Amino acid sequence: PLPSGRPIYDTMLECCNAQYGGQISGACISMLPSPPTGSPTESGDLDVFYPDSETPWSEAGCINTRPLPSGRPIYDTMLECCNAQY
């Protein structure tokens, strides 16, 4: 029987995140059948924005897609980028 008053989670990952999210050792996560790696992967959008110079100026905006082209100015937010570039 389950102890009364304890939360129940559908997956071990949900339990680890909810109950042991700040665990420095990572012990809970390491016991998952396929634990995530400690290194982030290079996927998804960037955390910075840059002007899209591949699109005509009248239609262009700021984007945060990978890969970041070299030599482009970068901005923390889309608004900062658009205000500076367009």
Structure notes:
With 86 residues, this protein is mostly helical. Helices cover 24% and strands 5% of the residues. It has helices spanning 12-20, 27-30, 78-85, and strands at residues 50-51, 62-63. The protein has a two-stranded antiparallel ribbon.
How do the strands and helices of this protein lay out in sequence?
Elements: H1 12-20, H2 27-30, E1 50-51, E2 62-63, H3 78-85
Antiparallel strand pairs: 1-2
Q: What average pLDDT do the residues reach?
A: 86
Order of strands across the main sheet: 1-2
Gross morphology: elongated
User: Helical segment tally?
Assistant: 3
What is the H/E string?
HHEEH
Largest sheet: 2 strands, antiparallel
Tell me the β content: under 5%
Number of strands: 2
Summing up helix and strand content along with how strands pair, one would put the structural category as mainly alpha
The assembly state of the depicted protein chains is: single chain
The percentage helix is: 10-25%
Distance between the termini: 63 Å
Q: Report the radius of gyration as a whole number of Å.
A: 21 Å
User: Which spans have pLDDT < 50 for at least 5 consecutive residues?
Assistant: none
Short summary of the structure?
With 86 residues, this protein is mainly α. The protein has helices at 12-20, 27-30, 78-85; strands at residues 50-51, 62-63.
What attributes characterize this protein structure?
86 residues, mainly alpha, two-stranded antiparallel sheet, 2 strands, 24% helix, 5% strand, elongated
